[in-house]
Amino acid sequence: MDLKEKAIASLKKHASGDAFSRLPAALPKASVLIPLLLRHGKLHALLTVRSVNLKHHAGEVCFPGGKSESGDTDETHTALREAEEEIGLPSHTVQVICKLFPVLNKAGLLITPVVAFIESSFTPRPNADEVSEVFTLPLEFFTKEADHSCYPVPSVFGPTHSFMYTDPRTGHIHQIWGLTAALAVTVAALALGKKPEFELGFDLDDPASAFRDVLNRRLSKL
Ligand SMILES: CC(C)(COP(=O)(O)O)[C@@H](O)C(=O)NCCC(=O)NCCSC(=O)CCC(=O)O
Ligand SMILES: Nc1ncnc2c1ncn2[C@@H]1O[C@H](COP(=O)(O)O)[C@@H](OP(=O)(O)O)[C@H]1O
Ligand SMILES: [Mg+2]
Q: How buried is 173 (Cβ within 10 angstroms: 0-12 exposed, 13-18 middle, 19+ buried)?
């Protein structure tokens, strides 16, 4: 199997399918697209820098994504629509692999990560109202200790991870932390089949386990 096939097979083992698709409408929902691509024979991930003018998470690094809208048919539709709006990614060129288990953020938004392969030749067209920059980086960066730190402050699941990435193309230094870092670390470990060099703080064989309790507590309060 080549690199891409291996990644797909490994990610699919953690597919959440429709297990979380029929949760109450009272629970606000969002999706992020985790776009993977092959570059120079390695798996890369695409990330965005949010506009400094946004009300929430201004200037932070995140995956393309956003809140579910009434016309969206499911979580994947939300992720693809948002990626098209934010970075001009044509949905029909995207190979969706799977949805992973969703995470609840502090604001109570249920966020479904949708993992997909995009074309290596994709040229982003950032929507300046929402996105100030788009960059890609090797997925294995999220398994290395070199530019990583970890704080004992709880994030979406486990402690807060943080990475400092210097983009060799622009010289810009990007901090990737919190929710986005947790998702990036999870996808890197699953897709590359490689345990990170640092302590994760959650069980990689069943990353959804801690989350299920948090979700059940939230659902019991609706
Ligand atoms: C949650 C969102 C996917 C919603 O999308 P929208 O475009 O409508 O804002 C998005 O805001 C998002 O991805 N936010 C997180 C960005 C991020 O990871 N920032 C760095 C750390 S802040 C953090 O981790 C917040 C965690 C929490 O529980 O709220
Ligand atoms: N055309 C537009 N111009 C400016 N802001 C927009 C916009 N479309 C969406 N937004 C804002 O961009 C943010 C992300 O939206 P989405 O969920 O669609 O990704 C939201 O703001 P906040 O995140 O600041 O609340 C939303 O209000
Ligand atoms: Mg968004």
A: exposed
Termini Cα distance of the chain: 45
Q: What atom in ligand 1 is closest to the CA of residue 156?
A: 28
Residues 6+ apart with CB under 8 A from 49: 59, 60, 61, 131, 132, 133, 134, 135, 174
Question: What's the rounded Cα separation, in Å, for the pair 13 and 188?
Answer: 14
* Centroid of ligand 1 to alpha carbon of 180 (angstroms): 7
Contact 56 CB / ligand 2 (< 6 Å): yes
Domains of the chain: 3-220 (3.90.79.10)
In terms of C-beta density within 10 A (0-12 exposed, 13-18 middle, 19 or more buried), how is residue 40 classed?
A: exposed
pLDDT at position 48 is 98
- The pair phi, psi for residue 154, each rounded to 5°, is -65, 135
How far apart are alpha carbons 134 and 4 in whole angstroms? 22
Ligand 1 within 6 A of 217 CB? no
Specify the pTM. Answer: 0.95
- The answer, yes or no, to whether any atom of ligand 1 lies below 6 A from the CB of 86, is no
Q: pLDDT digits over 54-112, tens only?
A: 999 999 999 999 999 999 999 999 999 999 999 999 999 999 999 999 998 988 899 99
